[in-house]
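note to self — DONT lose this again. spent like an hour looking for the file last time. sequence + predicted structure for the chain T wanted, 166 res
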Amino acid sequence: MPLLKPCYRFNRLTDIPISFFTERQIEGLVLDVDNTLTTHDNPRPAEGVLNWLAATRECGISMIILSNNSPERVAPFAHILGLDFEADGKKPMPGGVLRACRHMDVSPKRAALIGDQIFTDILGGNLAGLLTLLVDPIEPEAGWFFRLKRRCERLVLGGCTPGKEM
């Protein structure tokens, strides 16, 4: 698996059926925040996220937030969701991803990372040996840097359609 390619791609987090994880014996999920669970700097989860998290918990799957954001941004959001978190994750470096797995007491081979960015989330998850799932960003980001990065991501993805194995 090339390091910049996700194992799977979905439109939204809430489009991923919980059975997807149980069928693959996934015991823990490492979740990105911005444009995965909510829009940038939004203190509230996106529509359907709370229900999806509750259904995931009911199946006994551990979850933790891993974000490159500061604790001041991540802590209040994680509290609303009732999740532990690792802030200042330094993705794509695998250290934060591996710390998140240790925090959940889950082997990286039994964990999945879900995020919206190839060059941070997917690369970091692949480097750490997790199953990686790319979700489309909830909303387009402003700024030239994000527009450039999203254009590069489209080149990496090629014609990959959401809902398919990569």
